[in-house]
C-alpha cells in the first residue's frame, strides 16, 4: 500500500509541475521611482511605475504565471503587495513586511506567482512605510479561461476605475505625524485614476454595455460611487460572481473591488455624464469626478452631479452590503458552479472573536487586535519560521477572544491547522468604520449586525449564498461574521485596510500548517512552495 501511496504522490507532484509549466508566463519589468505631480495644484512626490500613475494594468487570465522584475529607484526600501491575489501555497510572494525582505534602494527583485484558480478584479499597492499615500498602485484583472463561460454577455469594453482619497502632503510627512503619536488629518480630495475632478474621461457608444472594474485604493475613506442618469448592475466582487442586482450607487470601502455593467443610453445626440466618488462617514464632503462622453462628445455634463446617500447613513450602507449575494449557478475559475462549495454545511473547527481598538502605549497612539499592537521584528516572520529562528515571534499572545488586560505591543502569530474551518467575528466597539483584509484567502461574509455579537445572532446568518471576498467592513459599534476554510498553507497577514491603523499596529499573522509540521523546510511542494532561489535575506539572516 505504501508503494501505491508513494506512486500517487509522485504522480501528483508531476501533475502540479506540469500544470504550472504548461501555463502561460507573463514577464514584466517595472521601475519604481518618484515623480513630481500636482493633482490638486500642490506639488508632491508621487510614486510612479515606468513613469505611470496609476501604474500599468496587470492584465492576466486564470492560472497565468506572472514574473514581475521590480527595480527600486526610490530612496527607501520597497515592497509591492497584490490585494486579493491569493498566492496559492506561495506566501513567499505576498509582498508584505513579514513575508518578504524589502527591495533596497538601487536593487531589484522578481516576484513570481500564479493566478491560480482565480478570476476577478483586484489591485496592487506599496506595502511599506505608508508609501501608498504617494501612489504606486495599479489595477489587476484576472480573466476567465476561454473554456469557462462568463455569466453575462461580453461587454463592449472594460475600464479600470481606481478611486481613493488623496493627501497633498508627502508620505514621509504623513508618516512623521503617525510616528509622533498623532492621527492623519482629513484628506485633501478624491482622485479617479490618479486625476483631479473632471480630468478622467471614459468613452461610451449608445446602446453598448461596459464593464467597470472599480477599486477603492485610498488610505482610509469609504467612497460612494455613482454615475449620473445610469444604473449599475453588480456582477463580481474580488473574485466572486454575484447575483446580478441593480444599484444606483455603491458604497466601496477601503481595499474593496467591484465589477459593474453599465449600459449606455440609446441616444443619437452626443452628451456627457458625471461619474462621482464621494466621501462617506467623515465630516467633510469630498468628490472625485470623472466624465463619461457619448460618441466622442467633447462638451461637459449638464445639470448637477447626482446626489448620493446622506454622509452618515449607515443603514443604507449596511442594507446594501447585506443585499450582495453569491451567484451559486455561475462557474468562476473552475467549471463547477460556485455554489458547489457548501460552506454552510461544514462543521466549524474554531471560533475567533477579533476586536479592534485604539490605545495609548508608551505615550503614543496605537491600534490593537484583542489588546495587542503589532511590532515588526528585524527578520520577516516567514523567513524566521522557515529557518526556525527563536525569539522572533510569539504564538498565543492574541487570544481567541478579547481579553481585559492592559494593551501592549507584540509580534503576534496565530497558529492554525491546515483545512480547519474558521468562524471569525470581527467586533468593532469604536465610533468609526473598520475594514479588514485577509491575504491568501476569501471570506464568506455570513452576517453583520449592531451591538456586541453573541451566539444567538448566529440565527441571522446567511448559510446559503453569502458573498465570498477578501476585504470586509465592520460598521461602528457593530460586528461582522465570516467563515473560511484554511486550505492555503503559509504565513498570512490579516490587517486593517485603513492605512493609518495598519501602520500603527492593527494586524497579525496566521500560520497555516499541518498538524505535526515542525520543520517548514521539509514541507512537500504539493502543499507549499519552497523558498525562492532569489529570496532576499535580511535581519538575522543577512549573512546567509
From TrEMBL:
Keywords tagged on the record: Glycoprotein, Signal
Family: Belongs to the multicopper oxidase family.
Coiled-coil residues: none
Pfam families tied to this protein: Cu-oxidase, Cu-oxidase_2, Cu-oxidase_3
SUPFAM superfamilies: Cupredoxins
UniProt KW Signal keyword: yes
InterPro entries from the UniProt entry: Cu-oxidase-like_N, Cu-oxidase_2nd, Cu-oxidase_C, Cu-oxidase_fam, Cupredoxin
Annotated protein name in UniProt: Uncharacterized protein
Every Plastocyanin-like domain range: 38-145, 158-296, 379-514
Organism, scientific name: Ilex paraguariensis
Range of residues in the leader sequence: 1-21
Amino acid at each position: 500500500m505504501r508503494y501505491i501511496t508513494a506512486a500517487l504522490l509522485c504522480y501528483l507532484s508531476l501533475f502540479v509541475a506540469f500544470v504550472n509549466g504548461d501555463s502561460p508566463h507573463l514577464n514584466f519589468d517595472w521601475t519604481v521611482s518618484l515623480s513630481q505631480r500636482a493633482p490638486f495644484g500642490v506639488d508632491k512626490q508621487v510614486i510612479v511605475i515606468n513613469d505611470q500613475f496609476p501604474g500599468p494594468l496587470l492584465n492576466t487570465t486564470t492560472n497565468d504565471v506572472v514574473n514581475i522584475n521590480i527595480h527600486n529607484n526610490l530612496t527607501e526600501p520597497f515592497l509591492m503587495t497584490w490585494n486579493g491575489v491569493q498566492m496559492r501555497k506561495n506566501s513567499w510572494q505576498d509582498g508584505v513586511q513579514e513575508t518578504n525582505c524589502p527591495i533596497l534602494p538601487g536593487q531589484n527583485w522578481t516576484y513570481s506567482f500564479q493566478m491560480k484558480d482565480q478570476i476577478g478584479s483586484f489591485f496592487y499597492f506599496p506595502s511599506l512605510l505608508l508609501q501608498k499615500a504617494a501612489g504606486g498602485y495599479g489595477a489587476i484583472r484576472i480573466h476567465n479561461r476561454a473554456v469557462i463561460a462568463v455569466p453575462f454577455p461580453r461587454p463592449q469594453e472594460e475600464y479600470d476605475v481606481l478611486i481613493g482619497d488623496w493627501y497633498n502632503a508627502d508620505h514621509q510627512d504623513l508618516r512623521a505625524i503617525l510616528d509622533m503619536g498623532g492621527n492623519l488629518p482629513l484628506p485633501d480630495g478624491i482622485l479617479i485614476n490618479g486625476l483631479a475632478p473632471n480630468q478622467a474621461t471614459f468613452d461610451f457608444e449608445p446602446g453598448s454595455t461596459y464593464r467597470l472594474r472599480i477599486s477603492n485604493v485610498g488610505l482610509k475613506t469609504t467612497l460612494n460611487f455613482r454615475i449620473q442618469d445610469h444604473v449599475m448592475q453588480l456582477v463580481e466582487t474580488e473574485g466572486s460572481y454575484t447575483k446580478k442586482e441593480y444599484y444606483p450607487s455603491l458604497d466601496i470601502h477601503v481595499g474593496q473591488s467591484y465589477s459593474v455593467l453599465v449600459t449606455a443610453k440609446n441616444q443619437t445626440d452626443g452628451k456627457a455624464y458625471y461619474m462621482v466618488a464621494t466621501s462617506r462617514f467623515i465630516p467633510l464632503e469630498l468628490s472625485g469626478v470623472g466624465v463619461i462622453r457619448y460618441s466622442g462628445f467633447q462638451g461637459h455634463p449638464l445639470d448637477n452631479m447626482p446626489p448620493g446617500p446622506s454622509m452618515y447613513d449607515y443603514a443604507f450602507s449596511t442594507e446594501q452590503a447585506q443585499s450582495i449575494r453569491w451567484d451559486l449557478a455561475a462557474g468562476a475559475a473552475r467549471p463547477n458552479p460556485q455554489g458547489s462549495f457548501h460552506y454552510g454545511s461544514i462543521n466549524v473547527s474554531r471560533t475567533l472573536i477579533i476586536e479592534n481598538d485604539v490605545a495609548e502605549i508608551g505615550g503614543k497612539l496605537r491600534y490593537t487586535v484583542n489588546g495587542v499592537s503589532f511590532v515588526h521584528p528585524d527578520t520577516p516572520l516567514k523567513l524566521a519560521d522557515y529557518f526556525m529562528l527563536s525569539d522572533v515571534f510569539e504564538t498565543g499572545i492574541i487570544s481567541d477572544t478579547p481579553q481585559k488586560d492592559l494593551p501592549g505591543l507584540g509580534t503576534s502569530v496565530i497558529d492554525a491547522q491546515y483545512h480547519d474551518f474558521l468562524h471569525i467575528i470581527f467586533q468593532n466597539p469604536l465610533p468609526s468604520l473598520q475594514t479588514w483584509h485577509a491575504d491568501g484567502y476569501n471570506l464568506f461574509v455570513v452576517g453583520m449586525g449592531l451591538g456586541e455579537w453573541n451566539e444567538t445572532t448566529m440565527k441571522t446568518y446567511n448559510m446559503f449564498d453569502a458573498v465570498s471576498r477578501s476585504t470586509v467592513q465592520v460598521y461602528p459599534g457593530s460586528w461582522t461574521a465570516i467563515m473560511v476554510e484554511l486550505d492555503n498553507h503559509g504565513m498570512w497577514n490579516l490587517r486593517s485596510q485603513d492605512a493609518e491603523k495598519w501602520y500603527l499596529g492593527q494586524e497579525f499573522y496566521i500560520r497555516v500548517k499541518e498538524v505535526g509540521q515542525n520543520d517548514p523546510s521539509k514541507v512537500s511542494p504539493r502543499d507549499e512552495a519552497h523558498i525562492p532561489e532569489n529570496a532576499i535575506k535580511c535581519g538575522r539572516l543577512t549573512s546567509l
